């Protein structure tokens, strides 16, 4: 394959364009084209890893996967019984479920859960007080679900304890109550 010459007359001037096409030049251009097409079709892939804290609090799906760069992954948090979903942390921030995460790098996401809390309301009839003691876990007057609270009726001077009413009945003192929903307890005292 030799050189090709094209002659064209343009305003009384002769324009000569020489094209040198060889098999090597054609092969170079073809390889360059294949490389460009292959490079443009390459897509990075990243790992999305989702953990639940605490593990017994619930689950998040998908919990792990490999996704192409630029894709969107929808994460869904589901609390277990007596737990509530409190929000996302790590590479996803927010408190709603589901949440969409755009994959632009490896992602580590945490689905956070906490125990449901219930109120324990106490009241007094007569003169005295109720002493609350947590038997296992919990806090303040709103207790985590599953907390056992010991209530002790403490009569004022000149009064005696006559019994419990509401979510505890009888006259056993002190008495324990399991917090698994909102509870109301009244301690009665007489002179």
What's the short story on this structure?
Helices cover 10% and strands 57% of the residues. With 191 residues, it is mainly beta.
Distance between the termini: 123 Å
DSSP E strands, number: 16
What percent of residues are in strands? Answer: over 45%
Structural class: mainly beta
Low-confidence stretches are 12-21
Largest pleated sheet = 4 strands, mixed
**Assembly classification:** single chain
Helix residue percentage: under 10%
Q: Provide the spatial order of strands within the biggest beta sheet.
A: 5-3-9-7
Task: Return the string of H and E elements.
Answer: EEHEEEEEEEEEEEEEE
Number of helices, where a helix is a run of at least 4 consecutive DSSP H or I residues: 1
Instruction: Return the average pLDDT rounded to an integer.
Output: 82
Give a verbal description of the structure:
The structure is a single chain. With 191 residues, the chain is mainly β. The protein is 10% helix and 57% strand. It has one helix and 16 strands. The chain has one helix at residues 23-41; strands at 4-10, 13-19, 45-53, 58-61, 64-68, 72-79, 83-90, 99-102, 107-115, 117-125, 128-134, 142-144, 147-155, 160-166, 175-179, 183-190. The strands form five sheets. It has a four-stranded mixed beta sheet with strand order 5-3-9-7, with no helix packed on it. It has a four-stranded mixed beta sheet with strand order 12-10-16-14, with no helix packed on it. A three-stranded antiparallel beta sheet has the order 4-6-8, with no helix packed on it. The protein is rod-shaped.
């Amino acid at each position: 394959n030799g050189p090709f010459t094209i002659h064209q007359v343009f305003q009384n001037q002769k324009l000569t364009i020489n094209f040198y096409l060889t098999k090597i030049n054609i092969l170079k251009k073809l390889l360059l084209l294949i490389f460009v097409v292959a490079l443009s079709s390459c897509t990075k892939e990243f790992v999305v890893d989702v953990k639940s804290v605490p593990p017994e609090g619930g689950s998040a799906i998908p919990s792990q996967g490999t996704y192409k760069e630029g894709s969107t992954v929808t994460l869904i948090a589901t609390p277990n019984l007596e737990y509530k979903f409190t929000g996302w942390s790590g590479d996803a921030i927010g408190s709603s479920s589901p949440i969409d995460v755009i994959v632009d790098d490896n992602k580590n996401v945490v689905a956070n859960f906490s125990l449901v809390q219930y109120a324990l309301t106490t009241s007094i009839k007569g003169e005295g007080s109720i002493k609350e003691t947590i038997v296992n876990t919990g806090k303040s007057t709103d207790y985590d679900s599953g907390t056992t609270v010991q209530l002790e009726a403490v009569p004022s001077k000149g009064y005696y304890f006559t019994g419990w009413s509401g979510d505890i009945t009888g006259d056993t003192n002190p008495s324990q109550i399991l917090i698994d929903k909102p509870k109301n307890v009244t301690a009665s005292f007489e002179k």
